[in-house]
Specification:
Blueprint: H1 2-5, H2 10-22, E1 24-26, H3 27-40, H4 50-61, E2 66-72, E3 79-85, H5 90-95, H6 100-115, E4 121-122, H7 123-129, H8 140-152, E5 156-159, E6 162-165, H9 167-180, E7 186-187, E8 194-195, E9 198-200, E10 207-209, H10 210-218
Antiparallel strand pairs: 1-3, 2-3, 4-6, 5-6, 7-8, 9-10
GO cellular component, one term: chromosome, telomeric region
Pfam families: SMC_Nse1 (PF07574), zf-RING-like (PF08746)
EC number: 2.3.2.27
Length: 237
């Protein structure tokens, strides 16, 4: 039976193809897609077997240095799946799609976001970077268009003129960010994955994703830090 389970079928291939064309897929969409692929290609389907289905695909992707990874939206805590290329760091992956100057802008935006208090950078701050680039100066208008492309390509997401890293970007670049921003990048104290938009304990400095904060404090009468037990002074989202 295990031998059978490990077989790549047309359903697996179809699932992978759709996932690759989307770049990232929300959990409930992935579950629907799993069902659809199994039905279409007449492969036995079990609704609670999505993770097994994906690990079969991942075993076959291994020699290609690719992997379907599960991550979480920092906004609402929902699961997402993205196809990640393990052979390339984010910079080489992006280098095939963007010019030198666009990449420089992206790295500077990433600095702003990761070094910020709350995981966001304002469009004003980003546009001010545009004429300080080393490669060559970028006009504001041009920078605005590039920002738009970063959002369309799911590297950034935008809310009321504030930019943060898209879930897809976090899933793809977690390792890159943790190793390149060792002093500032932090893992969530609850789910242990990279936390960009987070709340930080004023006493001991640990961080938590907003959805993790919400879940963790739901059951508690008085919010206390899971690490140092001091009163949690941030507003619970």
């Amino acid at each position: 039976n295990t031998a059978m389970a490990a077989q790549m079928t047309d359903a697996h291939r179809r699932f992978l193809q759709v996932l690759m064309s989307k770049g990232i897929t929300e959990g409930s969409e992935a579950r629907k897609l799993h069902h659809y692929c199994c039905e279409t290609d007449k492969v036995s389907y079990a609704h609670d077997k999505l993770d097994d289905f994906i690990s079969t695909i991942n075993r076959h992707l291994q020699p290609l240095f690719m992997q379907i990874r599960k991550g979480m939206s920092e906004e609402d805590g929902r699961a997402h799946y993205a196809v990640v290329n393990l052979a390339e760091t984010e910079v080489t992956k992006m280098a095939s799609d963007y010019t030198e100057i666009e990449l420089e802008l992206f790295r500077k935006i990433m600095d702003l976001i990761i070094l910020s208090e709350n995981g966001f950078a304002s469009s004003t701050d980003i546009l001010n970077l545009a004429d300080k680039l080393k490669t060559k100066k970028m006009k504001k208008k041009e920078a605005e268009q590039v920002l738009q492309v970063f959002v369309e390509d799911k590297w950034l997401s935008e809310k009321n003129g504030e930019y943060t890293l898209h879930t897809r970007c976090i899933i793809e670049m977690e390792q890159y960010i943790l190793s390149n921003y060792q002093d500032v990048a932090m893992k969530c104290n609850i789910c242990h994955s990279l936390a960009v938009q987070s709340q930080v304990c004023e006493s001991c400095g640990i961080g938590m994703h907003l959805p993790c904060v919400r879940k963790y404090f739901k059951a508690q009468t008085e919010p206390r830090c899971p690490q140092c037990n001091e009163f949690w002074s941030c507003d619970i989202p």
